[in-house]
Design goal:
6 strands, about 10% strand, 6-stranded parallel beta sheet
């Protein structure tokens, strides 16, 4: 599938306004509300961007893929910390079914609820996606399937994507980012 490239815009200098329709990628929500690596400068950049988005009253949309990725990535991140500190098990499912996971699940639930407070839910239209074309594109080995679906959603709904994921360079969607690979 050939897509037209869009020039990415720098999130730090982007002038958000009330007419913007935005989809914030999972990596942005994780940087703002998830477990962060100490010293990750992107946390401040995207937290400030979210503050500007909210102040401008831009519309923020979210789809179930982003919610699912947020929950699963957050849980695995916490598990990786836990397994390095505990010799109990090296099995994520055992961890998830243990008493040690309950406070983690509560943290994740609280943080995803904070995310959802800012968002309007939108459907990705799975039933009408050109699924064969997406699978063929995926089979070429150059793209992430969920990213393909999010790019399709952005195109269909006229959304600008706020992301730090360099994979969106040639997806044909308007991107707002701090990722230098996308801005180059």
């Amino acid at each position: 599938m050939i897509t037209m490239a869009h020039k990415a815009e720098a999130v730090a200098s982007y002038n958000f306004n009330h007419t913007d329709k935005l989809l914030l990628d999972t990596n942005i929500w994780l940087l703002v509300y998830g477990p962060q690596k100490p010293g990750d400068k992107r946390v401040a950049v995207y937290s400030q961007a979210l503050s500007k988005i909210l102040a401008a009253q831009s519309r923020i949309y979210i789809d179930v893929l982003i919610v699912s990725e947020f929950i699963n990535t957050y849980a695995r991140s916490r598990w990786n910390l836990w397994k390095n500190q505990s010799a109990s098990t090296n099995d994520f499912k055992k961890f998830r079914n243990s008493g040690d996971f309950k406070p983690v699940a509560q943290d994740i639930a609280a943080d995803i609820k904070r995310v959802l407070q800012h968002c309007t839910r939108v459907e990705n239209g799975f039933d009408s996606l050109a699924i064969d074309a997406l699978i063929n594109e995926y089979a070429a080995g150059d793209s992430d399937f969920n990213d393909q679906i999010l790019a399709t959603l952005c195109k269909k709904e006229g959304l600008k994507l706020v992301t730090d994921d360099g994979d969106f360079k040639n997806q044909g969607v308007a991107v707002i980012t701090a990722n230098q690979k996308l801005l180059a």
